[in-house]
Write a structure and sequence with these properties.
Number of strands: 6
Shape: globular
Distance between the termini: 29 Å
Number of domains: 1
Strand order of the largest sheet: 1-5-4
Oligomer: single chain
Length: about 55
């Protein structure tokens, strides 16, 4: 059964890298009006990935 993982970073970035692959970031406001950049991806059980804001 897959899960949807949200990789979220504080601040505004245009691109988030998932295992080195660039993905367009989406944005949301958190508590105290903080801005967050995020991507969502589907993962199978036991899958490991790395999200970063630089490649």
């Amino acid at each position: 059964r897959e899960i949807i993982w949200k990789a979220r970073f504080r601040g505004k970035v245009e691109t988030i890298y998932l295992d080195g692959k660039p993905m367009a970031a989406e944005y949301e406001q958190g508590p105290n009006n903080q801005l967050f950049s995020f991507i969502e991806c589907k993962l199978s059980p036991g899958t490991e990935v790395c999200a970063s804001v630089s490649d």
